[in-house]
Write a structure and sequence with these properties.
single chain, mainly beta, 2 domains, eleven-stranded parallel beta sheet
Length: about 500
């Protein structure tokens, strides 16, 4: 006897009546029309049995779902060989729990599946995914695209075996090209790229999640209006990434990201063996990295134990990747990091700081050691590259595509890392500060080229010497405060 989904239909009905009143004059009856009553949509509960948790039955159930359905999944660990695909609006999919105990939790395993992705949905209006786990999806664990009103609540996405060496899970929770997104109360472990990734989207809130053993903990890419708050982000390569990359199809420039009240700590895990692309440019041991994005505010976070730096602000040119999009603006504008509590930072810089920028780090560390001070990179590091159209006093460099050195950013595009609490590094006014480092990357590269004989000395004739070296021990250009545009309150976390 075949098992079938138990379907319960609940339909709300309403009564309407025309109310007749007696006119006050003339003694005649005058009917008063009532407003039409619209019946509420039918709510449908679909309860899936354990026997139906297989590729064929689940594909059929998902295909036949009607708008307004709640699909309830049973406890257990269930193996699938292909993605579970759902394209119906107004659907809730809910399991028994997202833990690792199949007796009480719902676990969807894609270990050794023949195709990519776990659960995916596209072109839907209003979808809620709640209280289940997706394990070992070679692609994306939970993937929602081209949709609105997306909620991921109480999920777990995990690559279960030695993730930094073997993971093929690109993204754990992955809403993209969508609007009105909530990702909350979830856990993501072991992606080869980003644990929680939101890209090409707007109106976003990522809250109360634990994310670890990924290259990026949370990544907001080419998106508008995002709040990342109250998360525990640890043991990733980088805790939070805010990227604007070239070649995107919806938003050419990401803007409006607020990172607040998070615990960002111990993100010193090496880049995953299978990682590729832009995420490999993240230095191991970075708390927060902002690349070419606009209007980023970082406040009231606890940022602890990052071997490279706590806050890294870069324009796209610093990555060394080619820009192949003429409509793309590669410069970072308007970052304000303030009110954070920062400790144990910059003690063993990695990535470019261990490669092409090693002479810079060695020089700084030698200077500090000679003064009897701790050899640490400052907790706020900026590449110092300014947008010629949003700055003044920039000295243009011939043949550098409009880039220059020196100058000061306009008030509406400054990089300010100021008024944070550093728990364990010295500050001696006008002498030494571990707060900020302005790398002045373009000037450094130019000076190094001249020293190496690759560029004639006349190329730097008339350029002040201080513009060919980093500003240390303090960075006047980052000694500023900003008022950033407010992030819209939507969506509300409940």
């Amino acid at each position: 006897m075949k098992n079938k989904a138990e379907i319960k239909r609940f339909q709300l009905s309403a009564l309407s009546a025309a109310v007749l009143t007696l006119a006050s004059c003339g003694g005649s009856d005058s009917p008063v029309a009532s407003a039409p009553v619209v019946a509420a949509p039918v709510a449908i509960e679909v309860v899936v049995t354990a026997a139906q948790m297989n590729d064929n039955d689940m594909s059929n159930i998902l295909f036949r779902l009607k708008e307004g359905s709640t699909l309830t999944l049973p406890a257990g660990k269930f193996h699938f060989d292909r993605p579970l695909i759902m394209n119906t609006s107004g659907v809730t999919i809910i399991g028994k729990g997202s833990g690792s105990n199949p007796a009480i939790d719902t676990i969807l395993s894609f270990k050794d599946a023949s195709t990519r992705n776990g659960l995916q949905a596209s072109n839907v209006k209003t979808i809620t995914l709640k209280n289940f786990a997706v394990e070992d999806a070679a692609g994306n664990a939970v993937f929602v695209s081209a949709s609105t009103n997306v909620t991921m609540d109480g999920l777990r996405a995990e690559w279960t075996t030695d993730p930094t060496k073997t993971s093929k899970m690109a993204y754990g929770l992955y809403p993209v090209n969508s609007d009105n997104i909530i990702v909350k109360n979830s856990k993501v472990i072991g992606s080869e790229d980003a644990g929680i990734y939101v890209g090409q989207s707007q109106n976003i809130r990522v809250s109360n999640n634990e994310v670890y053993l990924n290259v990026a903990g949370v990544e907001i890419e080419n998106s508008l209006n995002a709040i990342v708050e109250n998360n525990d982000l640890h043991d990733n390569t980088g805790g939070v990434l805010v990227f604007s990359l070239p070649g995107t199809y919806r938003f050419k420039k990401g803007s409006g990201v607020l990172i607040q009240n998070n615990n960002i700590h111990d993100n010193n895990t090496p880049v995953a063996a299978n990682a590729s692309g832009f995420v490999t440019s993240v230095p191991v041991g970075t708390g927060i990295m902002v690349l070419a994005a606009d209007n980023t505010e970082i406040k009231n976070n606890i940022i602890t134990n990052h071997k490279t730096t706590s806050v890294l602000a870069l324009s796209y040119q610093a990555t060394g990747f080619t820009i192949n999009d003429p409509a793309y603006n590669p410069f970072i504008h308007t970052l304000y990091a303030h009110g954070n509590t920062i400790s144990v930072s910059g003690y063993a810089p990695d990535g470019a700081f261990k490669g092409e920028l090693k002479p810079l780090v060695d020089g700084l560390f030698a200077q500090l050691t000679a003064a009897g001070l701790p050899a640490l990179l400052p907790y706020g590091v900026w590449d110092g590259i300014l947008d010629p159209e949003k700055s003044s006093g920039l000295i243009p460099l011939p043949g550098m595509g409009g880039l220059g050195i020196g100058g000061v950013a306009n008030d509406d595009s400054r990089i300010c890392i100021k008024n944070n609490t550093s728990l364990d590094t010295p500050f001696i006014d006008q002498v030494i500060s571990y707060e900020t480092l302005d790398i002045n990357l373009i000037g450094l590269k130019l000076g190094a080229s001249v020293q190496a004989g690759e560029t004639p000395p006349e190329a730097i004739a008339g350029i002040p010497l201080e513009l060919l070296q980093p500003t240390f021990p303090s960075s006047p250009r980052m000694n500023c405060q900003l008022t950033l545009p407010a992030i819209p309150a939507f969506p509300v976390i409940k």
